[in-house]
C-alpha cells in the first residue's frame, strides 16, 4: 500500500513540529480482528514507517487484552484506535464503555467506523451544506424517501461461526449504515468542528424510536449455482460453524422514521445483505412526484450518491427526447469521479483514518453517545432476533434478496422505474 502525497505532506508537517505529541505517538489497535489488523491497519502504519514518516520506536501496536501496560503508561501516551464490535447491545456496550472510560478520556479514544473513512461518506457533509441548490430541497416537503443500501456479492466465506453471533444488523447496519443515515439527515452544524458535527448526528439518533419486528424484513441466503462461483453452491447454513437451525439474518431491510420537523413522515429505508447480486453501497434520495404533471410519464428525480464501487453523484432527470419528438426520456446528470477526477488516487478508508488519528482529528470517529443511541434503537429488535422470534426469509445466493423487501420498499412509497444506460467509450 502506498502513502498518498497528501498523507506525506500531513506527516511531514509533524516533523516540522506542528504536531506537539508526535514524538510520543502511540496507536493501539484495540479489538481489531487479527485479519483486519494485518490486512488493513498494519500495512498503512507499516507504509508510514517505511517512508520514515512516523517513528517506529514511539509507535506501538498491541491488542488491549494482551497489553501489559500500566494505567499510567496508557493514559496520555496512547490514542486507542478501536475497531467494532463495540458490544452486542445497550448493556454490553455500557460495560465496555465504562471500562474504557476508566482508562481514557473521550477525546483520547478513536472508535473506527471505516465507512466514515470513505470518500463519498466524507463528501456527504460538503455536498449537503455547500450547495445552495440542495439545501431547500433537503426536506420532507420535497423528499419522498431515502434509501441507503449496502450489498455484497459474497457470503460469509467460512467466517460463519463469527458472523452467526452477530448477524447482518450488528455487522453493518447498526454502525456503517446508521452513520451514513445520520450524515444524510442531520441539521447544519454550527461549524466544521468534530463535536459540532457529532452533536448534530446524535440529535438525529435521539429522534428515532427503537425498531420493532414490523419495521424489518430479514433474510438468510440459501445455495444457488452461479457458474464460476463456487461459494454460491453453499447456503449460509452450509458454512461450517453455523448451526443448522440458525435464524441469524444475512439480509435486512429496515425502515426508520426521524421524528423532527425536517423529516417527519419520510421513510429512511436501510438495506444490506450478503450473497446478493452485486457489490454496491449508495444513498438514494427520491424526490416527490412533480405536482400537476402535464406529461403523464414524468418519473421521479433521484439523487444518487454512490459510495462504492466507482464513486459518483448522479441525478436522475427527465428531458425531452432529442430530435423532432416531444416525448420524454429519463436521463441523468452524471458526476462520475473516475471521469471528472481522472487519475486522482482516493486513499483507502483505513489510510485516511490512521492519518486522522495521528492528526488528532476526531471528526470521522464515533463518540460514546452516538453508540449509546445506536444501541438504544437496535437493542429491542436484536433481542427478539436473538430469541429466535423472527424467521428469516430464504433468498437465493446472487439474488437481490427476498421479494418481501421490495414489497416493503414499495409500500413505503419508493417508486421503481427501470433505467439502464451505459456510456459508450
Ligand atoms: N456512476 C454511476 O453509477 C451511474 C450510473 N448510471 C446508470 O444508472 C443505471 C442504474 O440506475 P439506478 O436507478 O441508479 O439503479 P437501479 O435501477 O439498479 O436501482 C434503483 C433502485 O431500484 C431498486 N431496484 C432495482 N431493481 C428493482 C426491481 N426489479 N424491483 C424493485 N426495485 C428494484 C434498487 O434496489 P437494490 O439496490 O436493492 O438492487 C435500487 O434501490 C445504470 O444503467 C447506470 O449505467 C448513470 C449515471 C451514473
Ligand atoms: O465492517 C464490515 O465491513 C465489510 C465491508 O466493508 P467494505 O469496505 O468492503 O464495504 C463487511 O464485508 C464485513 O462483513 C463487515 O464486518
TrEMBL record:
The keyword Nuclease does not apply. InterPro entries: G6P_DH (IPR001282), G6P_DH_AS (IPR019796), G6P_DH_C (IPR022675), G6P_DH_NAD-bd (IPR022674), NAD(P)-bd_dom_sf (IPR036291). It catalyses: D-glucose 6-phosphate + NADP(+) = 6-phospho-D-glucono-1,5-lactone + NADPH + H(+). Gene3D superfamilies: Dihydrodipicolinate Reductase, domain 2, NAD(P)-binding Rossmann-like Domain. Signal peptide: none annotated. Residues 28-82, 83-123 form the Glucose-6-phosphate dehydrogenase NAD-binding domain. Residues 126-416 form the Glucose-6-phosphate dehydrogenase C-terminal domain. Its EC number is 1.1.1.49. Transmembrane segments: none annotated. GO terms for biological process: glucose metabolic process; pentose-phosphate shunt, oxidative branch. PROSITE patterns: G6P_DEHYDROGENASE. Belongs to the glucose-6-phosphate dehydrogenase family. This is Glucose-6-phosphate 1-dehydrogenase. It comes from Salpingoeca rosetta (strain ATCC 50818 / BSB-021).
Amino acid at each position: 500500500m502506498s502513502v498518498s502525497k497528501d498523507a506525506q505532506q500531513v506527516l511531514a508537517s509533524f516533523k516540522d513540529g506542528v504536531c506537539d505529541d508526535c514524538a510520543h505517538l502511540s496507536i493501539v489497535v484495540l479489538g481489531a480482528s487479527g485479519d483486519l489488523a494485518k490486512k488493513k491497519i498494519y500495512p498503512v502504519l507499516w507504509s508510514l514507517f517505511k517512508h520514515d514518516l512516523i517513528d517506529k520506536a514511539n509507535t506501538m501496536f498491541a491488542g488491549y487484552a494482551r497489553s501489559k501496560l500500566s494505567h499510567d503508561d496508557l493514559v496520555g501516551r496512547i490514542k486507542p484506535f478501536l475497531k467494532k464490535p463495540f458490544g452486542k447491545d445497550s448493556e454490553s456496550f455500557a460495560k465496555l464503555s465504562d471500562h474504557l472510560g476508566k482508562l481514557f478520556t473521550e477525546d483520547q479514544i478513536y472508535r473506527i467506523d471505516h465507512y466514515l473513512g470513505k470518500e463519498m461518506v466524507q463528501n456527504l457533509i460538503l455536498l449537503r451544506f455547500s450547495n445552495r441548490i440542495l439545501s431547500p430541497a433537503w426536506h420532507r416537503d420535497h423528499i419522498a424517501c431515502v434509501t441507503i443500501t449496502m450489498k455484497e456479492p459474497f457470503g460469509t466465506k467460512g467466517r460463519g461461526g463469527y458472523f452467526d453471533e452477530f448477524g447482518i444488523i450488528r455487522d453493518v447496519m447498526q454502525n456503517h449504515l446508521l452513520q451514513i443515515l445520520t450524515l444524510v439527515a442531520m441539521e447544519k452544524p454550527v461549524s466544521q468542528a468534530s463535536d459540532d458535527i457529532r452533536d448534530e448526528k446524535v440529535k438525529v439518533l435521539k429522534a428515532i424510536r427503537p425498531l420493532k419486528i414490523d419495521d424489518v424484513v430479514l433474510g438468510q441466503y440459501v445455495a444457488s449455482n452461479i457458474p464460476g462461483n463456487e461459494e454460491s453452491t453453499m447456503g449460509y447454513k452450509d458454512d461450517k460453524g453455523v448451526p443448522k437451525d440458525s435464524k441469524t439474518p444475512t439480509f435486512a431491510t429496515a425502515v426508520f422514521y426521524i421524528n423532527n420537523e425536517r423529516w417527519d413522515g419520510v421513510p429512511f429505508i436501510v438495506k444490506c445483505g450478503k450473497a446478493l447480486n452485486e457489490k454496491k453501497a449508495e444513498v438514494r434520495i427520491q424526490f416527490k412526484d412533480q405536482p400537476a404533471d402535464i406529461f403523464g410519464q414524468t418519473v421521479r428525480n433521484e439523487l444518487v450518491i454512490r459510495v462504492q464501487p466507482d464513486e459518483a453523484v448522479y441525478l436522475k432527470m427527465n428531458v425531452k427526447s432529442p430530435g423532432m419528438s416531444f416525448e420524454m426520456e429519463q436521463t441523468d446528470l452524471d458526476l462520475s469521479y473516475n471521469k471528472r477526477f481522472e487519475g486522482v488516487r482516493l486513499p483507502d478508508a483505513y489510510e485516511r483514518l490512521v492519518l486522522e488519528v495521528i492528526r488528532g482529528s476526531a471528526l470521522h470517529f464515533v463518540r460514546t453517545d452516538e453508540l449509546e443511541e445506536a444501541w438504544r434503537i437496535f437493542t429491542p429488535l436484536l433481542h427478539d432476533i436473538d430469541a429466535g422470534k423472527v424467521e428469516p426469509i430464504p433468498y437465493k445466493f446472487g439474488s437481490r434478496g427476498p421479494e418481501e423487501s421490495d414489497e416493503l420498499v414499495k409500500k413505503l412509497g419508493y417508486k421503481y422505474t427501470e433505467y439502464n444506460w451505459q456510456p459508450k467509450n
